[in-house]
Amino acid sequence: MILDDADTYGVELALQLVDKSGGGEVTLVSMGSADEVAGIRGALAMGATKAVIISDDSLRGTDSLGTAKVLAAAIRRNMPDLILCATESSDGYTGILPVQLAELLELPSITFAKSVTVDNSVLKVDRQTEFGYDEVTSPLPSLVTVTAGVVEPRYPSFKGIMAAKSKPIEVLSVGDLGLATEVGSVGARQEIIEVNVTESRTAGEKHIDEGDGAIRIVRFLETIKVL
Amino acid sequence: MNVSSIWVVVEASNGSLTATSLELLSHARTLTPSVSAVTWDTHDSVIAQQVGDFGATTLYEIDHLDGMLPGVPVASAITALIDSQGAPAAILIPASYNGRDIAGRLSARLDRPVLANVTRILDEGGLVTEHQIFGGTQTIKARFTDEGTAIIVVRAKSFTASPNEGSVATVVKAPIGDVGPTGAAEITKSHIEELTGPKLEEAPIVVSGGRGLGDTSGYRLIDEVAALLHGAPGASRAIVDAGWVPYSHQVGQTGKTVKPTVYIACGISGATQHVVGMKGSKYIIAINKDADAPIFQISDLGIVGDVHSVLPALIGLLKTRE
Fold first, then answer.
1. Which regions of chain A are under pLDDT 70?
2. Distance separating alpha carbons of residues B258 and B7, to the nearest angstrom
3. What is the ipTM of this complex?
4. B70 interfacial to chain A (CB closer than 8 Å)
5. Lower Cβ count inside 10 Å, N or C end of chain A?
6. Would you identify the CATH topology of the domain B205-321?
């Protein structure tokens, strides 16, 4: 399962874990426009089984807790053994959404995973810390957020791309999930009151390297008394 | 003024509070006289003295976590504290690995939204938060539209840490309570990576590499220059995503915020996602083949050239000075 359709690392990891366990399926879950499914198709082409997209005009302005509620409702319909999320999606999530989702689903969560294996229904994760990493174990079902580089994503094969065209993408509305008041900008309970342009840095000197680039750097460091 | 009380989640490492924890405490006391700190796994009077020095009157001390990841038990203890002590106006949480977990768990438990990536907090007849967007070229001000505890996740180095010579904080025990199945993830072993130089966030000099290094072996140049300057090596998101270096090296919106005296960007174009994490550096030096790379717009010294020739020459010069 995956939240951010750009996150091919999670898709690859899910496919590898399913392969190793000898069977199972990978479902993609995403909130967003049902008209922009290129990322979803790409993940289906890699080998995911099917996709669920929650798409609704009323979702505009939904914050991360609201998004977590929507995803939780969609996932709860058919609880998987493992939920994989991107650590932070590129579209403004803050690294907090996956943990909100885990709490709503009453699951353990392990964030910032740099290695994930499943051994006899026990999840084993190496989790990034400020000073190194921790070995963490958790029962299934659990939720894991993966950092980039956890696995090397495969390129979809031609056969995979063709097969993806006929794989099911289910589109759900907020009504289908029985959520209404929690989502959208009202549900967010926060608002932007001001947008300001910040004072920007100005460009200093710029030189084309003619074999003297390194010397210029050393001189600069001397000027500011770092050397 | 209008802010009744603030709780600050503080993290300790090696018996002392982290820099971000001290920054949050220092700022909280400018907003309200009633600042409390919340911490865990440190039954240590040094911490009570330290949070007192930085203006907190109470230290809520959570039980030992016994190997549980902090997110669930800390959020559980804070939820219980709100029931027993009354809800604060705001809970400030550092944007660290564990801080984000705590914020997410707490948000869902309390059904309160989170304002994240915050760089300033103001009292304008209610708490207002500032967030940097588009690589810090714009800031937005946001506020909660209802009453209730504000959960605010603050980026490192947003405030200046300054002690207040306060007296030792009163310690109040905070039980974790029953966390059910959510608390089932446990740490079985911790690995500490030996740092040969200073920490990335604290280093006075940061040397960062990007795509322009060509491949993973090119990063050795960054390591070497960083070591010679007694600085820390950093990285753009692009090469972290490519798997050349671990996530802990990443500088930027989704990585670490650094404010060194000197930041040397090598083969980094200067995407907004990167710039937001380093534009507070005192001096910026950039080396890039592309004369139009956006990084040059914010650099004090720009060298238009190939990192593969400039960096080896720089290494040679620095070695002769040793």
1. 1-6, 88-93
2. 25
3. 0.90
4. no
5. C
6. Rossmann fold (3.40.50)
